[in-house]
Amino acid sequence: MLRDHQGAVRAFLRRLTVPARADELAQEVFLKAWRMDFDRVESPRSFLYRMAYRRFLDDRKTKVRRERLSEGARAPETESRPTHGARLDIARAMDALPPERRACALLCLALGHSHADAAAITGLPLGTVKSHIARARASLQDSLRAYRPAQTHRETIDER
């Protein structure tokens, strides 16, 4: 039964973090799920997403702590990313979102979960999830406005 959800959970984690780390986190999640009595879980997919998200948050906290400890020892690294292609721009815009907002956006906008499912998976209140999604959508639209068709002078006049 766990194999049925493996790809979806890995894809979710890969959108939250780098692929290599996502695979490690997914492996930890599935190992933990395999050790427990998983047959009594009402919604296995949501339960696995929740486990994966919490594992991601724990991993992020550890990473932040390590970075703070070594901040003075090294200069910040800058990532060089390609600037072409819609997929790369979408990935960049998603990466710019705060982790909780990104997780909510991925769950609802990309993976098709309901707001209630996202709230259950992330452990956030429903209103917070809705707020995160609205703000993520606005931020993504702003970041990707170059892909909107340009308004003609005529359309601008007609809107008045």
Describe the structure.
- The protein has 160 residues and is an all-alpha fold.
- The chain has two domains: 1-78, no CATH class; 80-149, Winged helix-like DNA-binding domain superfamily/Winged helix DNA-binding domain (Arc Repressor Mutant, subunit A), CATH 1.10.10.10.
- The protein contains eight helices and no strands.
- It has helices spanning 3-16, 19-35, 44-69, 86-96, 99-110, 115-122, 126-143, 153-159.
- The termini are far apart.
- The model is unreliable at 75-83 (pLDDT under 50).
Give the end-to-end Cα distance, rounded to a whole number of Å.
57 Å
Q: What best-fitting shape do the alpha-carbon axes yield?
A: globular
Q: Report the helical percentage.
A: over 70%
Report Rg.
Answer: 19 Å
Number of domains: 2
**Percent strand:** under 5%
If you average the pLDDT, what whole number results?
81
The DSSP helix count reads 8
Overall SS class: mainly alpha
Low-confidence stretches: 75-83
Number-wise, the strands total 0
